[in-house]
Amino acid sequence: MPGDLLARCTFPAAGTEVVAAVSGGADSSAMLALAVEAGCAVTAVHVDHRLRPGSAGEAEQVREVARAVGAGFRSLTVEVGAGPNLEARARAARRGALGPAAMTGHTADDQAETVLLRLVRGAGLDGLAAMRPGPTKPILGLRRSETHAFCARHGFDVVDDPSNADPIFRRNRVRAEVLPLLDDLAGRDTAALLARAAALLEEDARFLETLALAVDPTDGAALAAAAPPLARRAVRTWLAVDGYPPDLATVERVLAVARGERRATDVGGGRRVSRSSGRLTLSH
């Protein structure tokens, strides 16, 4: 029942105007319908990357679902620039068109896949906390099987994107190969365990963020004396660009400057951190 699912969602308050990124798949279609059920004033937005034949027809399927649930609709077309990592470039183009406040239909299964992908990239605590629940990720508490069942129950004609089965994309191999193997080894549903672990790590990360606010990253002595997890977090927050913090190697070089082991260091993007009279300064 929708009420049971809504209890595990994080939609904004009823009456809030929201944009829902809807590809036409079961996850985003279910999110759209549940957002309307939650009382939000929803506009479904379909972004056509024009990467495969028939993508324009998928926009019409989204229009029909939006009409059926009483949501607004608009369609956008974007150009995906040339270069490596098609998935990342398509995602960047989509985000640019939708804006940062758009809701996306990521589920607990997507969360589990993200945890594993970040683990093999060597992510730390924040990375393994993966996607944080909230108004832009309102159905992270739902399973993919639930969104498919929801759409089938409501008779939605959903899009089956063939790229979701293409093994060229690492996430698809995690979905089709790694998670089933882990389920077999553990004898249980590991996606649920990984999603729960991400939620616990997210709580830890928020707690450390609060503690790190007391550390002034421009005070060399204070930074050097702080507990390493807090010092690293203070530096990461200070040097983040558009929400993206520097890598661990850069953070450690800045801490070496704070300790007086080096006078200055490059921190990327043409920026430099230097120490003078006990203070750290960021310059371009």
What does this protein look like?
With 284 residues, the protein is of the alpha/beta class. It has two domains: 2-170, Rossmann fold (3-Layer(aba) Sandwich), CATH 3.40.50; 213-283, no CATH class. The chain has twelve helices and six strands. Strands 1-2-3 form a three-stranded parallel sheet, with helices on both faces. Strands 4-5-6 form a three-stranded antiparallel sheet, with helices on one face. A hairpin with a 2-residue loop joins strand 4 and strand 5. Helix 9 (190-212) crosses helix 11 and helix 11 (228-239) packs across helix 12. The model has no long low-confidence stretch (mean pLDDT 92).
Task: Give the fraction of residues assigned to helices.
Answer: 40-55%
Estimate the strand proportion: 5-15%
Strand order of the largest sheet: 1-2-3
Number of strands: 6
CATH homologous superfamily heading of the largest domain: HUPs
